[in-house]
Design goal:
The protein is of the alpha+beta class. The chain has two domains: 138 residues, no CATH class; 177 residues, 2-Layer Sandwich (Alpha-D-Glucose-1,6-Bisphosphate, Chain A, domain 4). Helix content is 48%, strand content 22%. It has eight helices and eight strands. An eight-stranded antiparallel beta sheet has the order 1-8-7-6-5-4-3-2, with helices on one face. β5 and β6 form a beta hairpin. α1 runs antiparallel to α2 and α2 crosses α4. The termini are far apart.
Length: 331
């Protein structure tokens, strides 16, 4: 076939739009609950959907005229982006999931486009290949309950030096209120739709020490103190209530304590030195997906960044308090 030189804009976009629609239709099919083989988090959907989008896009384009190798990559990526944002527009997906999955889907869409481009150039059976691949996610779903879902455990460690005594840093960790948006401006998780932390206050209860954490969109949960060494070490686990995450506050696929993701515990270590305090934090988390290699990368990126931002918040507030106390001098 000869390369396309002149073509109406609508005809150029047609294969891309068709690929995007194929992805949206597949997403509507995979609308099951968490843990179901028909969930949008099932490996059958996560891997097959973007590849199928890329294959449909290139297949339809090749039926009209031979396309370039760059088209086999760029058009499927565009179609995949339209597919993902299409699920957002029809309200079956939220901003958090959209932002998190786009890098992986874009790569897989390009893989599907390149594969179909090769098939169209080298064989006479692109139609049968497309139909065969389209059936794969459905077959994988039928046997989905027999496909194991691995559980991965990970940890995030961060530290910062604070020019303030450990006693002041300790107080800030256990009593932080009125958190402002500018104090969390660098948090990537917040930029993609995760509610912003508002306060965290430790209180003595009949059952022991509990840190009550409140975030935006009426998100709230308890952090149960497991180890308590004032001025030195603090570790808590998490306890969620049925209403901890109101509907629409977060995407169901990424809710903490859900089927696919959980934060197990968080600890802080304070070490006093001559110029202040070294504050360290460690967060343990769980991921349970059929694409843990990618989910773990996302968790490391977002949780690591959120840990950095949190430490800077405590540092700024502790140093401000210490500066104020130092200026006042002894009473």
């Amino acid at each position: 076939m000869s390369a396309v030189k002149h073509e109406l804009p609508m005809l150029k976009r047609y294969p891309v739009l068709a690929g995007a629609v194929a992805g949206v239709v597949l997403r509507l099919m995979f609308s099951g609950h968490g843990g179901s083989p028909w969930s949008a988090m099932a490996g059958a959907f996560i891997f097959a959907a973007p590849i199928l989008v890329g294959m449909v896009t290139v297949y339809l384009a090749e039926r009209k005229a031979r396309r370039s190798w760059s088209y086999y990559v760029s058009a499927p990526v565009l179609a995949t982006l339209l597919f993902v944002f299409g699920t957002l527009l029809i309200l079956i997906e939220g901003w958090i999931c959209v932002a998190v999955i786009i890098p992986m889907f874009a790569v897989l869409g390009a893989v599907g486009g390149l594969a179909m481009g090769c098939i169209c150039r080298l064989t006479n059976w692109p139609t049968r290949t497309l139909y065969g691949f389209a059936a794969l996610p459905l077959l994988a779903t039928v046997f989905g309950s027999y496909i194991p879902t691995p559980t991965g455990l990970g940890a995030i460690e961060r530290r910062v030096h604070v020019s303030a005594p450990a006693s002041i840093v300790w107080r800030q960790i256990n009593h932080v209120e009125g958190i402002r948006p500018d104090e969390m401006a660098d948090a990537l998780a917040l930029r993609i739709g995760v509610p912003m932390p508002m306060s965290g206050v430790t209180r003595q209860t009949p059952d022991g020490m509990v840190r009550e954490s409140r975030w935006g969109h009426q998100v709230h949960f308890e952090e149960i103190i497991q180890e308590w060494q004032p001025g030195h070490y603090l570790r808590w686990t998490y306890r969620f209530a049925p209403d901890s995450f109101p509907r629409e506050a977060m995407d169901d696929h990424v809710v903490i304590g859900g089927h696919y993701f959980d934060v197990l515990d968080t600890s802080f270590t304070l070490v006093a030195d001559g110029s202040g305090t070294t504050l360290s934090t460690k967060v343990h988390y769980r991921i349970s997906t059929q694409f843990n290699f990618y989910a773990n990368w996302v968790a490391q990126l977002l949780l690591g960044n959120l840990s950095d931002v949190g430490l800077r918040l405590y540092k700024a507030r502790a140093e401000k308090e210490w500066k104020s106390v130092s200026q006042q001098g002894p009473s």
